[in-house]
Design goal:
The complex is a heterodimer of chains A (520) and B (608). With 520 residues, chain A is an alpha/beta fold. Chain A has four domains: 3-164 and 475-517, NAD(P)-binding Rossmann-like Domain (Rossmann fold, 3-Layer(aba) Sandwich), CATH 3.40.50; 180-268, no CATH class; 271-324 and 334-381, no CATH class; 389-469, no CATH class. Chain A has helices at 3-10, 12-27, 38-48, 65-70, 83-92, 129-142, 185-192, 201-204, 209-221, 232-245, 253-260, 263-266, 273-279, 295-310, 326-355, 361-372, 389-400, 412-429, 438-449, 458-469, 476-495, and strands spanning 30-34, 54-58, 99-103, 120-124, 146-152, 155-161, 164-167, 378-381, 504-508, 513-517. Chain B is α/β, with parallel strands linked by helices and 608 residues long. Chain B has four domains: 2-171 and 382-432, 3-Layer(aba) Sandwich (Rossmann fold); 178-377, Orthogonal Bundle (Arc Repressor Mutant, subunit A), CATH 1.10.10; 446-534, Structural Genomics Hypothetical 15.5 Kd Protein In mrcA-pckA Intergenic Region, Chain A (Roll), CATH 3.10.290; 559-599, no CATH class. In chain B, β12 and β13 form a beta hairpin. Classes of the chains: A alpha/beta (520), B alpha/beta (608). Chains A and B meet through α1, α2, α3, α4 and α12 of A and α1, α3, α15, α16 and β8 of B.
Chain lengths: 520, 608
């Protein structure tokens, strides 16, 4: 077996999720883990197995018996050895395609330049506040995504900190762009090519539903002012119009399908407001495009030019399955594909002019993917903050207005703030908080987040109590789950596919739920 | 001991000691299994049995972290246990079994009864159903779990309390009409099915009996179509293929040209003669074999390697692949090696890929890459470590409710079914357990028990069994007529079929490990399923059969109710989010579902 073939067989099950393009990006990635914890080993395990290029573990402590008890990737014989070294060894054995490194120097001794070698950094558990802020701010400026991952007892949080996330290949459900209301000339010509009355019954029952709808809409327009049915009455009338075109509404599956998918005729081909918003984003380059302008924004610029001219977006070209015969379906498919290809070529030309050069083959691939995903492009503005006034406000408000679950003694946002305070406590008191520390713990919380003590509701208090009662980090089942979630986020960022977390997630293992929040 | 400290704190002393003393079964040592074993061990379980019949393949290594390259072809069950031995911090006793969980001699009822809890980490419906049934027989709680790509689910099952695995209907694979596959394909999947299920099986695979007699196959075909010309064509096609098969012995040089000529030229030409099939177009075009042959010959002289499996290939390239794989397959068949289609067997896959693409080409259907065809032909489900890690963590976490609860009601109320997805807002969604479904044939309409029988089952006549049944379960007093059906769906006895009464059970193929289903012919009494286990003497279990509630046909749900139930929320495949008007509604449903699961205690009625 050749090396390439062996690799594609080994990674077969994941290539079906992110294809070779995602895989080669993953293989170019270098991820850094700060703190060799159980959750951290779960994160790295899930990245080494699919073949991330490099991983580096930064940890200056030595393995203790407590580490071995919850970290699968350490054994008793490792006690006394550096944690980073032990974990690196076992994780490295998982996949020879992945290169493991470890650093035993303390965080404060690492110079700024150290961090720029990574594509993504993951910090699990406690890091001295001062150090955390420093690393976080540095990475934010370098535009290297940082994931903060914490687990305490049955609770866990994952927070993605990065300046900006743009994704072309979101794998979101794209809407079929069929242009029933605005058929281009070739499609219209094909739709007119059927001689309805002359067709025998079989052929009549094989006219594709899109063709039926195009003709019906044209017919409707000849009697109405508006370009498409707008209200219930008009829609009722249009429905009747379509059924009248059928010879037998009980048997002609294409007409049945046309009625079932009748809203395809109501859909207006237009440029969405989200896209217009994107065009106005300050990131969109002006007439001159710099060498460092991300391809995403160059493509947005090219798309804007395309839209300015044609008032439409490039056609994606995908066609849903339809009740028809092979001949007509293939013909229709070809029409959509040819139009999509033509639109794509125009976008490629516009991009070339903007860049003043030819596109590389991987850039050409990106344009193809871009054209298929224009309706579902993802852009998220990030922030470097760990907390925000809005979030504090909703923490206090949500928990006081009785909105929360009456049977439960927790609320998920309180979990997030509880875990931040947990690390803050370690920073101040130099040990893990215990149930009898509730008062100090609460004071720390009020001081740090400028909340008045009177605003702390029962549910916040119950959550804090729960945290202090089960005050161990890296409980294996939470670690496995949160590690899984965090590594999934790393995979999305590495492969530039799927929509990453925007931007903070809380897991509550007592109620088996998760909630997402945006920290601005 | 200090090493237990952290778990005692998390789980509580009492629960932790229960777990330390617990014996559990993990069925499946694959994607979820590897992760699950790690979590179970670090949660401190006393004894863990691991069952898997599979061996390790290369494509497992991207997620099944307890296996290495050197372990390929070794037993999964034995290998996991070996590779975790040095990480066994809590000294759990690990017992591997390399075998099929449905094997009743390897895993008799007595073996099953040792377990306190069962964790399923399976990849197929049949085994899941079987384990569910065993859990029902013995009332052992079961954790069901599964993943597909980024999606996954865990479902705790408390027998006769919560929904069992069969309470909700499962999606079964699609089947295609024979005529579509054999005469009028219109989609890539039709060509693939033809190549894999018909062509490949007829030519190489002797494990399935292809030699059904002509009358039988004619009857089968007549059920599918009344076009007699088409039936004649299909029968002739199969006969000729069988004749051609005998030429394999003559070697590839003889066999392959004949094969191509027949299936891609002659069969198609004859198919074209049946005018009724082409009334509405879609006429196939036979392969231009005379022109392609010389090109193929010169291509065969070079050593072309078509490496990129994601590329769509030309007819000539497909012919080349057909030839190369055909040569190897012929050699293997001639050497007497049994050949069956396997997606991981490169020769068989190549042959099916090339043949289906050539057929698609002939019928004007989209030609697919090897990568895509492999997924369809091999029923491949994408899989990664991340989802399995999430699901296994949830699986153990949810099961711990059982060890915490004082009674089954508490365990039932505190447990959740949890879904995992890639949707940005819906990483995890939990919902309270639902009570058993009153129309479930597995856990509601049928009662279960273990019947004991000495090994010499022949000593017991069916008549004696009948007598025992009638007395033990009061069938006679209540004037019920009963029928008996064996586990493999054979009718053993009913009022109109008394021939077997004098037979010993062994003559009827019934023995240790068999199951019997006893049903009343009329009336609403629960059915009874008996599992036959080895005992000293014939003994029936004491079970009080319930009267079933009169079946009232449920009024059809209005659309609004369906939405409230949220049944459509999770399945991307079901929702067509194509139309703008529909999208908003779907968003609403999702919103509602989130609110339900995140802010309120999930109600029992909420079906997720």
């Amino acid at each position: 077996m050749t090396a390439t073939k062996e690799k594609s067989n080994k990674y077969d099950r994941q290539l079906r999720l992110w294809a070779t393009s995602g895989q080669s990006r993953l293989e170019d990635c270098h991820v850094c883990l700060v703190n060799a914890t159980s959750t951290g080993s779960e994160v790295l395990k899930n990245l080494v197995l699919p073949g991330i290029g490099d991983f580096t573990i930064v940890d200056d402590s030595v393995t203790t018996d407590a580490d071995v008890a919850n970290n699968f990737f350490m054994t008793r014989t490792d006690t006394g050895r550096p944690r980073s070294e032990a974990m690196c060894k076992y994780l490295g054995e998982l996949n020879q395609d992945s290169n493991g490194h470890f650093v035993t120097r303390p965080l404060h001794s690492l110079e700024d330049g150290f961090w720029s070698q990574f594509n993504i950094v993951v910090i699990t558990d406690y890091v001295a506040s001062e150090r955390l802020i420093q690393i976080k701010d540095l990475l934010f400026e370098l535009e290297i995504p940082l994931l903060l991952v914490n687990t305490v007892g049955y609770y866990g949080t994952v927070h993605l900190i990065t300046k900006e996330v743009t994704v072309i290949d979101t794998h979101a459900n794209n809407l079929y762009d069929l242009r029933v209301d605005k058929p281009w000339p070739e499609l219209l010509e094909y739709a007119h090519s059927f001689n309805w009355d002359a067709l025998d019954d079989t052929d009549h029952a094989h006219i594709p539903s899109v063709v039926i709808l195009i003709n019906a809409l044209e017919n409707w327009r000849s009697h109405h002012e508006s370009p498409a049915p707008r209200n219930t009455n008009e829609k009722k009338e249009f429905r009747r119009l379509v059924s009248l075109m059928a010879r037998n509404m009980d048997f002609e599956t294409n007409f049945i399908e046309a009625i079932e998918t009748i809203s395809r005729a109501y859909r207006r081909t237009s440029v969405s407001s989200e896209l217009h918003q994107l065009f106005n984003n300050p990131k969109v380059p002006g007439e001159t495009v710099g060498n460092d302008t991300p391809l995403f924004w160059v493509l947005i610029k090219a798309l804007k030019q395309f839209v300015d001219v044609s008032q439409q977006i490039p056609l994606s070209g995908s066609l849903p399955d339809m009740a028809s015969d092979t001949k007509n379906y293939v013909r229709l498919q070809r029409l959509y594909r040819e139009k999509a290809d033509k639109d794509k070529r125009e976008l490629v030309e516009a991009t070339k002019i903007l860049l003043k050069r030819d596109l590389t083959s991987s850039e050409l691939d990106s344009v193809s993917v871009f054209c298929k995903n224009i309706q579902t492009l993802h852009v998220a503005e990030g922030s470097g903050n760990l907390s925000s006034p809005e979030l504090i406000e909703s923490l206090v408000k949500e928990s006081s207005n009785g909105f929360e679950d009456s049977n439960s003694n927790a609320n998920t946002l309180a979990i997030y703030y509880g875990l931040l305070t947990f690390n803050e406590f370690i920073n101040e008191v130099h040990r893990v908080p215990c149930p009898h520390d509730l008062e100090v713990f609460t004071q720390l919380f009020t001081k740090k987040f400028k909340v008045d003590h009177s605003e702390i509701s029962t549910s916040i208090m119950n959550t804090f109590k729960e945290i202090l009662c089960h005050n161990t980090t890296n409980y294996i089942n939470t670690a496995s789950l949160i590690g899984g979630i965090a590594s999934q986020e790393v995979l999305k960022l590495c492969t530039s596919q799927y929509i990453p977390l925007d931007n903070m997630l809380v897991f509550d293992g007592i109620r088996s739920i998760s909630n997402r929040y945006k920290i601005s | 001991m200090s090493k237990d400290l952290y778990l005692k704190k998390i789980l509580g002393e009492e629960r932790f000691s229960l777990i330390r003393g617990s014996t559990v079964l993990m069925v499946g040592a694959g994607g979820i299994g590897c992760e699950l074993l790690k979590d179970l061990m670090l949660t401190g379980y006393g004894e863990i049995h691991i069952v898997d019949l599979d061996t390790i393949t290369l494509s497992n290594l991207n997620r099944q972290f307890l296996f290495r390259q050197k372990d390929i072809d070794k037993s999964k069950a034995l290998t996991v246990v070996k590779s975790v031995s040095k990480f066994n911090y809590f000294d759990s006793k690990l017992v591997p079994h390399h075998g099929n969980i449905m094997d009743t001699s390897m895993f008799p009822m007595s073996w099953w009864s040792q377990f306190d809890y069962i964790y399923n980490a399976l990849d197929n419906l049949e085994a899941r159903r079987y384990v569910n049934r065993m859990a029902l027989y013995l009332k052992i709680p079961l954790m069901e779990s599964g993943t597909t790509g980024y999606e996954g689910q865990v479902q705790p099952i408390y027998p006769y309390r919560s929904e069992c695995f069969e309470c909700q209907a499962k999606v079964t694979p699609t089947t295609y009409p024979v005529c579509t596959i054999r005469s009028t394909p219109s989609k890539p999947v039709h060509s693939i099915t033809w190549a894999k299920e018909f062509l490949f099986q007829q030519l190489y695979d002797d494990s399935t009996s292809s030699a059904t007699d002509a009358e039988e196959s004619r009857k089968q075909l007549e059920k599918e179509t009344d076009d007699s010309a088409e039936i004649e064509h299909m029968l002739r096609e199969t006969n000729e293929l069988n004749d051609l098969k005998s030429h394999i012995a003559g070697g590839a040089d003889v066999f392959l040209p004949e094969l191509v000529e027949k299936i891609f030229v002659r069969d198609i030409e004859r198919l074209l003669e049946i005018e009724s099939l082409w009334k509405h177009g879609g006429r196939p075009v036979p392969l231009d074999w005379s022109q392609l042959k010389p090109q193929l010959d010169s291509l065969l002289l070079t050593s072309t390697d078509l490496v990129d499996e994601t590329k769509v290939q030309t007819p000539l390239e497909n012919l080349y692949v057909l030839w190369k794989s055909g040569e190897k397959l012929v050699k293997r068949v001639v050497s007497g090696e049994p050949v069956v289609f396997d997606k991981d067997d490169e020769d068989t896959l190549d042959f099916v890929v090339a043949a289906s693409n050539l057929r698609s080409h002939i019928f004007g259907i989209e030609v697919k890459s090897k990568f895509d065809i492999k997924q369809i032909a091999g029923n491949i489900i994408p899989a990664i470590a991340t989802t399995n890690a999430i699901i296994s963590g949830l699986s153990v976490m949810e099961s711990l409710e059982y060890y915490k609860a004082k009674d089954s009601q508490a365990a039932f109320s505190n447990s959740s079914t949890v879904f995992v997805s890639i949707k940005p807002n819906k990483y995890l969604m939990g919902a309270g357990l639902v009570e058993q479904n009153s129309s479930c044939a597995s856990c509601f309409k049928v009662a279960r028990g273990v019947m004991e029988l000495p090994e010499t089952s022949g000593d017991l006549k069916l008549g004696e069994l009948l007598e025992g049944l009638r007395q033990t379960y009061d069938y006679e007093d209540d004037h019920y007529e009963i029928s008996i059906i064996s586990g493999d769906s054979r009718l053993i006895y009913d009022i109109d079929f008394e021939d077997n009464i004098p037979c010993g059970l062994d003559e009827l193929g019934i023995g240790i490990g068999s199951t019997l289903l006893i049903q009343v012919d009329e009336g609403d009494l629960q059915g009874l399923e008996l599992y036959i286990s080895k005992g000293k003497e014939f003994k029936l279990p004491q079970i009080q059969l319930r009267e079933l509630p009169k079946t009232i046909s449920e009024p059809e749900k209005s659309e609004a109710e369906v939405e409230k139930d949220g049944e459509v929320v999770f399945d991307d495949g079901v929702i067509e989010i194509e139309e703008i008007e529909e999208i908003e509604e779907i968003e609403d449903i999702r919103e509602t579902a989130t609110k339900l699961s995140s802010q309120e205690p999930p109600t029992k009625k909420q079906r997720l």
